[in-house]
Amino acid sequence: MIELLNVSKRFTTKNKTIQALSNVSLTVEKGEIFGVIGTSGAGKSTLIRCVNLLEKPNEGKVIVDGIELTKLSDSQLTLERRKIAMIFQHFNLLSSRTVFDNVAFPLELEGKSKSEIKEKVNSLLELVGLKEKAKDYPANLSGGQKQRVAIARALANDPKVLLCDEATSALDPATTKSILQLLKSINQKLNLTILLITHEMEVIKSICDKVAVIDNGQLAEQGKVEQIFIHPEKEITKGFIQSSLNVELPLIYQNSISNIDSEDNNPLVKILVRGNDEQNSVIINLYEKFKVKAKIISAHLEYVGHLSFGVLLLELKEGNTNEALAYLENEYANTEILGYVG
Amino acid sequence: MSDSIINLLFQGTIETVVMTLVSGFFGFVLGLPTGIFLFLTRKGQLLENKISHQIVSIIVNIFRSIPFIILIVWMIPFTRTIVGTSIGVSAALVPLSVGSAPFIARLVENSLLEIPSGLIEAARAMGAKPLQIIRKVLLPEALPSLINNVSITLITLVGYSAMGGAVGAGGLGQVGYQYGYIGYDFAVMNSVLILLIVLVFIIQISGDLLSKKFNHR
């Protein structure tokens, strides 16, 4: 549905050139939710703006629903954009228009009749659950409600794809969740293709089918979300996954931890478990193989589809702890000895 | 105060109001499109065009540099060809409109610059044509600020029209000039002053009210 082929984009300022995108290629299939994750400045905003040509790429092709946008004239492009909806981090609602008139805006551009507009807008406001706010101005709405209005507005022209530019980054966690649920339900109900960019792994994890990691203007890796979560290849990807899993050492351990590896001290290790049963049975393995009693100090496990992954903080007691440590370092990614406790 | 003086003040007030409103109207007819053009041709805007922007910008700056009293005199030949005379209310309208237009253009440009750029981006993303963006996004979003600028302009025009009074434009300016400068009449002079102040206050207060009414931000 969306195809970027070797897209490059440079920004030239007076004394330097910034390569915002270099040779980016990706394909989003119809009905898919595709997420692009990256840190700020990685080029993700430029990437999503290249899809509807708000930024014109210096090289490469942009194809949406079989139409090569990069070949169109400005006026043809304007008309084609009406089928490529977009929502934004800061909502970008017109402050001079009511909720109803904001949603009506794209329909007015198309020159639809008053009665058509009324019917369509009302059904859209119903879809996003804001029918009773139709006459309010955006200034009187919460962030979540504003984004709902923006979503209704985006859907007004029955778009082929929806582009989400950090759509939940300005929202609190609970509102983020409800907006993501709304996007997912729209995706399923209307079979709408969604391309989103974000810096939050949460967003990818909760609604995306596929993910691409962008770093320094290049796609570091891309694939199905489960696959990327379970077998990340690049450091940047591992970083994003780890940042979404937060385990902290409890206070009492923070006070007693030391670097001294002695007979009486037990090692504290942090291991990353992912996916398969073998890995998830780490505690049994440690006991059966080394007679080590592993005590779980803290853990964070997540599920992507039917696969689980996460971080475990373990205190290794009794048994042959040295061999157990060697075993863990061998078998588990990112095994880290945090220190020793008495 | 005699009836004829009261009549003169009344006549002067009407003339000043007419000069202010009519030249304000024509000032906007010239200044609004120019202001929109200045905004749209700026760097990074919809119709970015450095050369056109600079040319219009220089013309605007030249007209803004000319002191109004000089502009009136300088424009006399032009005024004559347009309205057939260089004296009276209708003659004053020409330099007042031309003098206020560049001022209005800059005010309009500034009003448009206050609009968050995301709104224009969103409108482009929705497939709005440039004219639709001007009509449906730029002007409505800038309306409260534009109304404030209308009051600023009209107040400036009250002042300009009074200046015009010194060279035969009519209005309260001329009354003040004749009864103040030529032969000092305390009562008339102060009546003119009070009438001008009241006029400015009415413009300012109604401008504020209207601007507030249309501001939903």
UniProtKB/TrEMBL annotation, chain B:
It is found in: Cell membrane. One of its GO terms (biological process) is D-methionine transmembrane transport. Its main location: membrane. One of its GO terms (cellular component) is plasma membrane. CDD domains: TM_PBP2. Pfam families: BPD_transp_1 (PF00528). Keywords: Amino-acid transport, Cell membrane, Membrane, Transmembrane, Transmembrane helix, Transport. It comes from the Bacteria. Coiled coil: none annotated. It is a multi-pass membrane protein. Residues 13-205 form the ABC transmembrane type-1 domain. The chain crosses the membrane at residues 17-40, 52-76, 82-105, 146-169, 181-203. Belongs to the binding-protein-dependent transport system permease family. CysTW subfamily. PANTHER family: ABC TRANSPORTER PERMEASE, D-METHIONINE TRANSPORT SYSTEM PERMEASE PROTEIN METI. Part of the binding-protein-dependent transport system for D-methionine and the toxic methionine analog alpha-methyl-methionine. Probably responsible for the translocation of the substrate across the membrane. This is D-methionine transport system permease protein MetI. The lineage of its organism: Bacteria, Pseudomonadati, Bacteroidota, Flavobacteriia, Flavobacteriales.
